Each structure stands twice: as C-alpha cells, then as structure tokens.
C-alpha cells in the first residue's frame, strides 16, 4: 500500500448521530434507531493553510448535512450499503476529495448477546466513483444539444420537490443555482407547497414543492442536464443500484414540465411531463404563480380541480 504524500491531509468528523430506519427487519424500518457515523476525508489542505479561506477547503458543515440526510433518509437493509453510499456521495460532493473512509455504527443492532457496538467501514477513492459523479460541465455542450438550442429565449416550467433535510433551504438554493447559470433566467416562482407523498413508501415525510418559470436559450437536452447537475449538487442519487426508491424520499427533484410548445419524446426526456396533468403538487402551486397558465392547451386551474391530491396541498409561508 503506497504511503501518503505530504500533500494528503485529513478532515475527520466523528460521532455524528441521527435516527435512521435501516435494517433487515420490519420493526427496524418502522421504529428506527440511532446510527453514528465517523468520516475521515483525505485531501490537500495546503492552500487552506496558507490562505485561511473557507473556499480553499471542504466544508465539514456540508459533509455533516450530507451524512445526516443519508442517515435519516431512505432506508437500506444493510449498514454496509449505507457506508458504501455515504463514501461515494461524500467523494462526489467535492472534486478536491481524494478518498473517504466512512464508518457506520449501529449500537442498538438486534442482537441477543451483550455487546457495545456493531460497525462497518467503507474506504473509497476517486477511482471507485461511478460515472454519474463525473458530470461534464454544461458549457461543454454535446453536438446534438447545441443543434437543438433555440434561436431566441423560450419559456419553460420546472417543478421542484424535496423531503429530506432542510427542504425549504434546498429549494431556495436550487433556484439560485439555476439562476446563476448562463443561458437561463428565472422569471417567476410559486410559493412553497407542503404535500403528502404520492406513491412510494408510506414511511417518507411530506414534501415541499415549488414551480418556477424560466426563460432560456438552452435546448431541452441541455436544460435537462442542467437540472440534473443541480440535483447532483444537492446530493440526489439516481438508480436502484445507488439505493434510489421509486417515488421515494429525495433531497431534490427537478422535473421539466413544459418547454414552450415543444413535444419531446426520448428514452430519458418527455415534454410535456407525462404525469404533470394529474399531480396536484405541481398544478396547485403553478396556479398560484400563474392563474392563466395552460398545459397542452388546457387551463392549469382546470387540471388542478381534477387532480386527486389537490385538496391536500397546503401553502407554506417562509419567513425571511
């Protein structure tokens, strides 16, 4: 095993504890129990040591938030899976991290013997990351994305949702991230809506949802890639192999609902969104933002009246 160079430094976060619902048994997923996580991050701290600037290091505040969201989020059967998931997510959160060692403790594991702790440790380096963590920069448009770019700005409607972590803060941050991107302007935003989950596992918390309208010169494909980049920046995972549960809890979800009058149908993108017309958690905040809006030629107010979950959508006032 190669020795560490003098440029490989360490940030340690020890004993972060939260209640999670991980375990093989039904009562573990139902009742929950405390989990404790230790994280050791390998990186080069020389720039931070010289500058004394937060921008030159990896914020342990952000790492702590990521770990807490994973502990309290969607449940895994095995703490081995949780440790692997955390190691990959921590590494993927910042390109400056060279390696991550994550130990997950389960001090109340269902054993009949007397014991103090059960733990597993996952050690991962950047070479262990899956391709999802190497999303190319938006500025490097793929040829078909550049060819599909509109000649002038078009209006698009996006729906955002979150039910893990500080969801109000996540949605606000996501909108700000979108607005900072070249080629896109946020034109209007709806108030936040609190909604019960539609589909998915019954144990997940309520969602906060928001609808925004943007003006953009990005093609539909490029806009999709931008929304996925913003999701990834807020620790969204995708795919069953990464532990994602269909219609389950997530730190951030961004859907493209409409893009001007375009109709797009590819294996990875459908516009208008095929289920938007049935989703009160999209339609109701959309009417708050724009009472005159239409979706595929039908007034959104009319669609909202027919949506089964519309009556459960509650407006949320966020204090400045």
Automatic annotation (TrEMBL):
<feature type="domain" description="7,8-dihydro-6-hydroxymethylpterin-pyrophosphokinase">
    <location>
        <begin position="246"/>
        <end position="257"/>
    </location>
</feature>
<dbReference type="InterPro" id="IPR006156">
    <property type="entry name" value="Dihydroneopterin_aldolase"/>
</dbReference>
<keyword id="KW-0289">Folate biosynthesis</keyword>
<dbReference type="Pfam" id="PF02152">
    <property type="entry name" value="FolB"/>
</dbReference>
<comment type="similarity">
    <text>Belongs to the DHNA family.</text>
</comment>
<keyword id="KW-0067">ATP-binding</keyword>
<keyword id="KW-0808">Transferase</keyword>
<comment type="pathway">
    <text>Cofactor biosynthesis; tetrahydrofolate biosynthesis; 2-amino-4-hydroxy-6-hydroxymethyl-7,8-dihydropteridine diphosphate from 7,8-dihydroneopterin triphosphate: step 3/4.</text>
</comment>
<keyword id="KW-0456">Lyase</keyword>
<keyword id="KW-0418">Kinase</keyword>
<dbReference type="InterPro" id="IPR043133">
    <property type="entry name" value="GTP-CH-I_C/QueF"/>
</dbReference>
<protein>
    <recommendedName>
        <fullName>Bifunctional folate synthesis protein</fullName>
        <ecNumber>4.1.2.25</ecNumber>
        <ecNumber>2.7.6.3</ecNumber>
    </recommendedName>
</protein>
<dbReference type="InterPro" id="IPR000550">
    <property type="entry name" value="Hppk"/>
</dbReference>
<dbReference type="GO" id="GO:0004150">
    <property type="term" value="F:dihydroneopterin aldolase activity"/>
</dbReference>
<comment type="pathway">
    <text>Cofactor biosynthesis; tetrahydrofolate biosynthesis; 2-amino-4-hydroxy-6-hydroxymethyl-7,8-dihydropteridine diphosphate from 7,8-dihydroneopterin triphosphate: step 4/4.</text>
</comment>
<dbReference type="Pfam" id="PF01288">
    <property type="entry name" value="HPPK"/>
</dbReference>
<comment type="similarity">
    <text>In the N-terminal section; belongs to the DHNA family.</text>
</comment>
<dbReference type="InterPro" id="IPR006157">
    <property type="entry name" value="FolB_dom"/>
</dbReference>
<comment type="function">
    <text>Catalyzes the conversion of 7,8-dihydroneopterin to 6-hydroxymethyl-7,8-dihydropterin.</text>
</comment>
<keyword id="KW-0547">Nucleotide-binding</keyword>
<dbReference type="InterPro" id="IPR035907">
    <property type="entry name" value="Hppk_sf"/>
</dbReference>
<dbReference type="GO" id="GO:0003848">
    <property type="term" value="F:2-amino-4-hydroxy-6-hydroxymethyldihydropteridine diphosphokinase activity"/>
</dbReference>
């Amino acid at each position: 095993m190669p020795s560490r160079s003098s440029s490989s430094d360490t940030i340690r976060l020890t004993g972060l504890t939260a209640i999670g619902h991980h375990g093989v048994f039904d009562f573990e997923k139902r009742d929950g129990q405390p989990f404790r996580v230790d994280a050791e991050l390998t990186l080069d701290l020389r720039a931070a040591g010289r500058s004394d600037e937060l921008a030159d290091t990896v914020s342990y505040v952000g790492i702590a938030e990521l770990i807490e969201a994973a502990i309290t989020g969607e449940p895994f059967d095995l703490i081995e899976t949780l440790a692997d998931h955390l190691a990959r997510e921590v590494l993927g959160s910042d390109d400056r991290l060279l390696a991550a060692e994550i130990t997950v403790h389960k001090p109340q594991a269902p054993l009949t013997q007397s014991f103090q702790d059960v733990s597993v440790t996952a050690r991962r380096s950047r070479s262990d990351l899956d391709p999802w963590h190497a999303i190319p920069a938006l500025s490097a448009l793929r040829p078909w994305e550049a060819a599909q770019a509109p000649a002038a700005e078009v209006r698009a409607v996006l729906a955002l949702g979150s039910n893990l972590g500080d969801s109000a803060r996540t949605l606000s941050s996501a909108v700000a991230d979108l607005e900072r991107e070249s080629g896109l302007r946020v034109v209007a935003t709806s108030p936040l809506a609190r909604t019960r989950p539609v589909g998915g596992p019954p144990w997940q918390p309520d969602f906060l949802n928001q609808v925004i309208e943007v003006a953009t010169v990005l093609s539909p494909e490029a806009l999709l890639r931008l929304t996925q980049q913003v999701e990834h920046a807020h620790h969204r995972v995708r795919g069953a192999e990464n532990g994602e549960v269909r219609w389950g809890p997530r730190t951030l979800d961004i859907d493209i609902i409409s893009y001007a009058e375009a109709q797009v149908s590819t294996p990875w993108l459908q516009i208008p969104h095929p289920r938007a017309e049935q989703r009160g958690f999209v339609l109701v905040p959309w009417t708050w933002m724009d009472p005159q809006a239409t979706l595929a030629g039908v007034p959104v107010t009319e669609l909202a009246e027919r949506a089964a979950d519309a009556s459960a959508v509650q407006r949320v006032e966020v204090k400045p």
